[in-house]
């Protein structure tokens, strides 16, 4: 985080969470079937946030599932879910490392939420809104666009934004920028594959779990 703007990431995080709460997105969770899907998504995403690959040179690749949650539950509920995942995974990492409560790095809560949750979720929501407006409403286009393309592009965009933020703040690492961009392409492909595969399965077998997939829009004759 740039020393000149130490509070920007917490402010962005709290602003996004406040907007999400104001939308009251938990109302659809009154349905038992959706509750099961939402709890399963929380578990899967928390596991993703506790597993990462460190490549030679220190480059870290980590899937977030932010675009997937945005596709399944919409942006407001996705943001609240991602913040819960952030807290749960941070506690899980501390437990796996054998750290005590006082040793948990709570300062990492806001950067993790912004770059792994807020930024990719917001980018995915914007891309999906553009697709709904400009592309034909067809189930195949929904799966391909919302599941694959929006997830990959959102992960790539959030990764580039984070890299630029680090450069702007002077936190240049030992990994060359070209290697960082190559790693982001690999990460974007992984996000697209994971999200697209699960969205395709859920649209076919559990469409009630995909709140952005409306029957009246995509199944009209």
UniProtKB/TrEMBL annotation:
Keywords on record: Cell membrane, Membrane, Transmembrane, Transmembrane helix, Transport
Residues passing through the membrane, by range: 36-55, 67-97, 109-127, 139-164, 184-205
Compartments, as annotated in UniProt: Cell membrane
Keyword flag Secreted: no
Membrane topology: Multi-pass membrane protein
Lineage top rank: taxon: Bacteria
InterPro entries for the chain: CbiM/NikMN
Principal location listed in the UniProt entry: membrane
Membrane is among the record's keywords: yes
Protein name in the entry: Energy-coupling factor ABC transporter permease
């Amino acid at each position: 985080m740039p020393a000149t703007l130490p509070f920007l990431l917490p402010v962005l995080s709290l602003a996004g969470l406040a907007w999400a709460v104001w939308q009251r997105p938990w109302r659809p969770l009154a349905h038992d079937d959706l509750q099961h899907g939402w709890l399963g998504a929380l578990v899967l995403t928390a596991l993703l946030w506790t597993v990462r690959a460190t490549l030679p040179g220190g480059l870290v690749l980590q899937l977030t599932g932010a675009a997937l949650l945005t596709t399944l539950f919409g942006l407001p509920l996705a943001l609240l879910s991602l913040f819960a995942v952030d807290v749960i995974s941070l506690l899980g990492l501390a437990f796996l490392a054998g750290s005590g409560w006082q040793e948990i790095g709570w300062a990492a809560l806001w950067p993790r939420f912004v770059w792994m949750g807020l930024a990719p979720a917001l980018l995915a929501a914007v891309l999906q809104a553009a697709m709904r407006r400009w592309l034909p409403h067809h189930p195949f286009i929904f799966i391909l666009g919302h599941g694959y393309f929006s997830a990959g592009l959102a992960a790539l965009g959030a990764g580039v934004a984070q890299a630029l933020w680090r450069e702007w703040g002077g936190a240049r690492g030992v990994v060359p920028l070209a290697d960082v961009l190559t790693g982001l392409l690999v990460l974007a492909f992984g996000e697209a594959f994971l999200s697209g595969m699960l969205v395709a399965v859920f649209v076919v077998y559990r469409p009630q779990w995909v709140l952005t997939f409306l029957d009246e829009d995509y199944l009209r004759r």
